[in-house]
């Protein structure tokens, strides 16, 4: 809570969340008494999944008088609107992206993750707690499972969960995503237009072009 | 097709499917002309996911006059009914199994896989094309992500997809599953009672007992 007091002292009235979120290993010995009071509700929420935990985090900020803004209200250029940014998915890639999008939407109510990898109509991997990078490493490890070695290479698809608060924990794509998607031999990366943050845009686009991956903000 | 003719010649009228199923890399040069005729439908079905592909396989056998039986009609002892076989899940383990069961049921219409791993209310992994062993290896790799290192260790849950034909591709548990679940530091293995094949029952139970894992055919 000293952190929230500090924001108030500095005259901060609005906050925006950015960056990766990790579940902390909390050490109660480090809490001041006021922080200690909010620990039980955060801990409870953490045990019921991402969405609930993050809603509690937002509530804590809002209750202390701060207004939480969405990142695309502050820096709209970070969240690409519909369109092809690099390359061109094949018809088969588009089918794989469609199926992956259905999977991510279907996973939404289960509060599991924000991504899936589909190749040749088959789901190679689903994002869970370990995150997108771990999922891409998993897909790289098992890339020989595609039924047709010369067929469609597959698509990483990312989207927010249908019911999540879009002011926090938007999925993110950047140079690391491109590097790992190339290592997994994918054809490209697709995502929900308006729902995903594209980091280091120029470098990400250049890396994708160099690796022969498409980048597609799918409508 | 020569294989189906051979079964008819031998007077076989009933078949039962057992064992792991891998998507074959088909080499058209190896097909005889009659087999070639069924290749397009199998290939088409393979591209729409497991359930469709396996339904086509069953249809091919049935159209040639064979009756396809479920494994629990032949060897009911392979498919445990409800009950605890080894150990005792804690209340928290039961909650993890409940959530994992909801995930596997929810994944069903998406035709992704037949398993999930949940620890402390969080989904560590979802089964996809690479299968249960690959999912367990993934969970072992990321086992440090549990928020509370001393908390519940987590549960592997397996179940048939809600809409699948139970005469083929029932999920399977055996000594390998136990070994990998122990390597992933899980508390135990739960599955849908009546819907999962338990291989090498005595050895699997003994191994689970030795590793301190529960085995639970969940009702």
UniProtKB/TrEMBL annotation, chains A, B:
EC number annotated for this UniProt entry: 3.6.1.54
Gene3D superfamilies membership: 3.40.140.80, 3.40.50.20
EC class name: hydrolase
Keywords, alphabetical: Hydrolase
Domain LpxI N-terminal: 3-78
Recorded GO MF terms: hydrolase activity
InterPro entries: LpxI (IPR053174), LpxI_C (IPR010415), LpxI_C_sf (IPR043167), LpxI_N (IPR041255)
Domain LpxI C-terminal: 87-216
Record's protein name: UDP-2,3-diacylglucosamine diphosphatase LpxI
Organism per entry: Paracoccus cavernae
